[in-house]
Design goal:
Elements: H1 3-9, H2 24-42, H3 45-87
């Protein structure tokens, strides 16, 4: 397991973040939940099971995509720091 994977798996998850009341995320989650509940009420037991399997697979896709986005963002940030450190002269203590 890479160091970034270890950081990611130590509990940094979108599920653990609080959702700010009135935010775009909260409004979207409310709409999603409302529509999901309406859809589930229309499904037979067999259809509901298949729907749940589909949602579980989709949630797995989202989790993998989120982890990959975290790794990419972290890597890009590290490269930016390296670039800044290499291109900027930092004065020594004697020069200050």
């Amino acid at each position: 397991m890479s160091m970034l994977e270890e950081i990611w798996t130590c509990g940094l998850s979108y599920k653990d973040r609080p959702v700010k009341l009135g935010s775009a995320l909260e409004r979207t989650l409310c709409l999603y939940t409302k529509n999901q509940n309406k859809l589930k009420a229309m499904l037979s037991e067999e259809q509901a099971e298949q729907y749940q399997k589909t949602m579980d697979a989709f949630n797995d896709v989202v989790a993998v995509t989120e982890e990959e986005a975290f790794e990419l963002g972290f890597t890009l940030a590290a490269r930016l720091m390296i670039d800044v450190m290499q291109s900027t002269e930092v004065p020594s203590i004697d020069e200050a």
